[in-house]
Amino acid sequence: MNRNLRLWALLMILALLLSGCTSSPPDTLVRKDTDASQLVSADTRALSPDASAATLYFRYGDSTYLAPEERVLQVERNETLEKKLVQALIDGPAATHSHLHPLFPPGTEILAIANREDTLFITFNEALLSRYSDEPSDISQEPWKTEFFLRRQLCMDALAATLTEAGLCARVQVLVYQENNQSTSLRLQAGFFTRSKDDTLLPPLTRNEESIFTPHNAATAILNAWMIQDWPTLYSLTAKGAIQDPRPDEQSAYSAFAAAQALTGFLLSPGNVASSGQSAVLSADLALHSSSSDLSLDGYPVHLCREEGLWKIPYSRLIAMMNQK
Length: 325
Description:
Layout: H1 2-22, E1 50-60, E2 66-75, H2 81-91, E3 100-101, E4 110-116, E5 119-125, H3 144-165, E6 171-177, H4 191-194, H5 215-227, H6 231-236, E7 238-239, H7 250-259, E8 262-268, E9 272-273, E10 279-289, E11 294-307, E12 310-314, H8 315-322
Helix pairs in contact: 2-3
């Protein structure tokens, strides 16, 4: 009797287990239809890029200065702003900025970028060490003796200025990977600037304000051009102006410059930029000379305006300063 009862109980338990296998699983285990438009792709290339306003620095004409280009960069989700900025410098300025020139040798590529504390480490390929397309093999004579060094100095200054202005680092350490070089360090060497075998390892780059076309540097260039009577340069640093204050043609401007007093010396204050960022004023002590007298002007205001991103002097203000009595 007891044996039959135990057998009956086992059969009941087995029946319950079998019926449980065929019942519906909990809702949490059921796959439900999902709106495909709500799915997030794991492929970051499918995501919209972020727009980032940037200030890129390139060489201003054939000068010893860097000038800015304001640009909006589209940064993809699978790339960094640091790499986007450096690649933009390598690619060069926009075609609309004909007064700006690229600074990296052709073929330069970014191999790696890493940020450690406040220092950004950038590894380039060895094309960074190559010549520019217009450089001769012999650079022992001027102007190439000076130009060779200047281009490379401005190239490094542009790199540091662009990245520090974006707030991405305080210093930039440049590294160069050379496939056939057995050097113990990838750090850029001093011979980069002089085409020599100087293997002194260079420290990280920092921002060099002396190479940037700031209001003070622009005013210095304007007054220097006046002092040495370099009329083409002085004209290029004169704003085209608005309808009410236009700049005349070159020959008319050259005649006006030549008829004015000569500048024999000057001192400039640091200056101040307006809150709009579109105008600046500096104080200058000027020593003027004419055929009839010498004149000293203390604290003369030098007004500058921004035109196409560059600091220039309005033509009417320049002529007024040159003809002070």
